[in-house]
Amino acid sequence: MAQTTSRLRVTELDFNNIKTNLKSYLSSQEEFKDYNFEGSAMNTLLDVLSYNTHYNAIYANMVANEMFLDSAVKRDSVISLAKHLGYRPRSSTAATARINVTINSPTGNPSSLTMTKGTVFRSRVNDTNYQFVTTSDVTIIPTEGVYTFTNIDVKEGTLLTLQYTKNSADPAQRFLLNDRNIDVSTLKVKVQESVADLTTTTYVEADDFLEVKSDSEVFFLDAVENGFYELSFGDDILGKALSDGNIIIIEYIVCNEEDANGANAFTLQSSVGGSTNATITTVINSENGAPRETIESIKFNAPKSYSAQKRAVTAEDYKVILPKLYNNVDAMQVWGGEDNDPPIYGKVFLSIKPKTGRTLTTSTKDAIKNTVLSGKTMVSITPEIIDPVYINIIPTITAYWNPNITTSSMTDISSAIRDAVTTFNSTELKDFDSVFRYSKFVSIVDQADKGIISNISTIRCERNFDAILNQESKYTINFYNPIFTQGKGSPSNLSSTGFNIAGRTQTLYLDDDGDGNIRSYYLEEGSSTKVYVNNTQGAIDYGTGKLIIDQLNITGTVLDNNSVEVFVTLNSNDIVSVRNVLLTINTEDITVNTIVDKIATGESSAGVDYQTTSSSELSRTGGTGVAGAASSIQVQSSGGSSGSSGSGSGSGY
Questions:
Q1: First CA to last CA across the chain, in angstroms?
Q2: Full-prediction pTM beyond 0.70?
Q3: CB atoms closer than 10 angstroms to residue 561
Q4: Phi, psi of 338 (to 5 degrees)
């Protein structure tokens, strides 16, 4: 009788290891003890067996992973698992604009005029035409013969209508919305009794199951496979059931998500009152268009949504509920009034960074507070939405590179560094509570191209304030990080863009004296000599980073947007954000200097090849750069060492 072995190795997943195990197992049998597997047809059979085993192992591993939310990779799996937690992923969102429309010469000069649902307008964004539609009928009465529709909201996309007929004889019948870019906020559902009976009933989405009764005319909406949504109806226990022959009429908008954001000029494409001649003014440019929720966002939000249970009590609850109900949230910070500076009890503060633009409009803030969060906050707590505070980080990068180890040119090196910094900004600084890590920053610059040997980077920070023109005003700016100073009499750290004040013709600027005083000055005509107007124009707290600029009657600014930019060098190159502060690096503010490292190339160190790719500071100031900005001078000596000189005082704008 042949001897067999009971030692079976079943832990291998690699193809070659599986095959080796099979050969070892067969070699342990008496019949195949001295068998040459490699030189026989048996080798092909072992390949087939190993392939089949490997295939099944991979399949089993993938199936196991897709059963858990944390490890699932496929979108359909993530959506299905989130459904068990009562979470429905956010759909695409149509860009929305608000316009005023005056219809010129409507037919017959009627006593009233109706703009019907689905009236089409067009606008152009980035050389692409987009269609906008109204979502409801609006009727007006003319005022002194003028037919003006005011504050009409139009949504980008195509208004579609879909119909199903209930048929209980078909057990597989489903009410699918077969469009991936549907905006579910525009979904409207009506049920018509039958083909013969045209009576219709409007059904609403079930939001709170505790309030749904057996006769409630509600529908349920779920995200399903292939990126689609599916409608379902009650069973006469939880919601009213449909009857055979009922016709379900479904209406919704399919949109182009964020592509249509920013539309600001509209033309009427449909007829209103028999006329297509209309005068249109834009009240609010199109905004809030957004893509459907990503897989990563679903996996992050679904468990937290389950724990929040649709109520906003803690800060984490707001962070989960608001992005689910309002799609245009790129990042959000929430803190209680007791943590505010100064404390304001009875309030919760929300700061929202939108996906489009830097701040929310007043109307959007009001809609969030009065509609989106209505009924979800505690009675004694009032939500307050405040704008994010942006601290702009301005890097000056000097990169040493070796042309012998890369095919890149100086221009390529500069572009690669800019791309690396842009990526760093979008990945490392995109959220509140982020930290600008200087060591990580210089590391990504070094890795931007294999030809880069090293880099020396200096950092300035900028904030701005909006000038209140022709009015004595006090301005407070906070960098929330200690500001560098060497003490009284040291070179000025603070600098600013120019502004004009009442009673003076010169353009003024701001600097500091190193001892906590902010000064205002102008430049002597034809030179860079500073003439100080006020040596105590304000105060700067170097320890906290707060600046207070005393009363100024500003009549105009150098910048077109009536703002004044203020620049400082902080005490540390690691910069932190608190509460509603966001750190950001604007591409146009990056200065890149490239220097051939002649030590690395083996050439003489008598000179360097130097190229500067400047930031927009030069163009917007018309001068030599940021006033008072820290300068960096790199010199390669005959000994081959490189060095840098620190902060210096530059001239004003």
A1: 99
A2: no
A3: 8
A4: -70, -20
